[in-house]
From TrEMBL:
Native organism: Paenibacillus methanolicus
Domain of life: Bacteria
Name under which the protein is recorded: PilZ domain-containing protein
Length: 236
């Protein structure tokens, strides 16, 4: 996501309303409250549905704690209810719920998480394959390259060819079986593989909740692993 200090304007219900990217919140002094206990830190990372707050009193908070945040940011004072979703030495990660900050939701996009997951295209995919595809092709399996709330990027071997616009039944294994339909929106070739970008078609409420929970866990895990790697490199 591109960094910018510019505050954009958009008309909403006949009024001028400020909108801004997530990065406008970086380096905001942040007050974190729970059950009458108050501590202050600095917001140092913001992406997707996660905020990281560096603070010396991180040990006073625990996973799952509901917290109230007050952010003193360059785009104004922002307040929201959140939950502690991860801890590391010197910092907390908290949830950034959808539509939780005034002016933010207009600039927010589905966050793509790079993750390798097994998946398979159901047998009826053959009706959506490109013209000339052989009927005797083997079961269509794939590996994801990235996943978001809105769709997936995945790769298959060359003998599985899908046309743009095809709606395909698929199953993705992410600790649970996400059985869904995906619409192919782009394609390309990478070495011996075909790459496809697809959007989810009408996930139900339970599927959407489980997918969101999976993505938050992956995002937090990836972020803190990368942070530990940077620390290790700095010590070398």
């Amino acid at each position: 996501m591109t960094k910018t200090s510019r505050v954009e304007q958009s008309a909403v219900y006949g009024k001028e309303m400020s909108t801004y990217p997530l990065q406008a919140l970086l380096d905001s002094r942040t007050v974190v409250e729970k059950d009458g206990y108050v501590s202050t830190g600095l917001l140092t990372h913001v992406e997707g549905e996660m905020l990281e707050i560096e603070m010396s009193e991180f040990k006073s908070f625990h996973l799952g704690d509901p917290v109230h945040l007050t952010l003193y940011s360059p785009v104004g004072i922002q307040r929201l209810q959140s939950t502690v979703i991860a801890k590391a030495e010197g910092s907390l990660a908290v949830l950034l719920p959808p539509k939780s900050l005034a002016g933010l939701e207009e600039k927010r996009e589905a966050n793509r998480i790079e993750v390798r997951l097994d998946g398979r295209l159901q047998p009826s995919v053959r009706a959506n394959q490109a013209e000339g595809a052989a009927d005797e092709e083997p079961p269509a399996v794939f590996k994801t390259k990235n996943v978001s709330l809105s769709g997936i990027g995945f790769e298959t071997v060359h003998n599985v060819k899908l046309r743009i616009g095809a709606i395909v039944p698929a199953v993705v294994s992410m600790g649970f079986e996400l059985s869904c339909h995906i619409e192919i929106v782009r394609s390309g070739t990478e070495g011996e593989f075909c790459f496809y970008g697809a959007r989810f078609v009408e996930l139900n409420e339970l599927q959407a909740r489980m997918l969101r929970a999976f993505l938050i866990r992956e995002q937090v895990s990836n972020y803190y692993q990368a942070k530990e790697r940077r620390k290790a490199l700095a010590r070398m």
